Amino acid sequence: MIWINELPYQVVYLIIVILASIVYKLAFARKLPLLKSIMVYIFLAIGCVILFVFHYMGFPIMVAMLLTIIMVVVTRVRLSFVKRD
Length: 85
What we know:
By secondary structure, this protein is mostly helical. The protein has one domain. Helices cover 78% and strands 0% of the residues. The protein is built from 3 helices and no strands. It has helices at residues 9-27, 34-56, 61-84. Helix 1 packs across helix 2 (34-56) and helix 1 runs parallel beside helix 3. The protein is flat and about 50 Å long. The model has no long low-confidence stretch (mean pLDDT 91). It comes from Polycladospora coralii. Keywords: Membrane, Transmembrane, Transmembrane helix.
């Protein structure tokens, strides 16, 4: 994913925030009122600054987030099959 380092830093940060939002929504999100939900996403975006710094330090943050999304989706699909039986 070397091509990602050629993108502007705002785009890289936006990608990290989007991936973190997907992970949150798939794995942890509960039904919340609108204002509380907005606050959660604001704090999530603030917390992504640390992940952004780690990305530029050379840690594979985006790869780890993509793998997390894949694992959560596989788990959800598997659970849906188990519940169906």
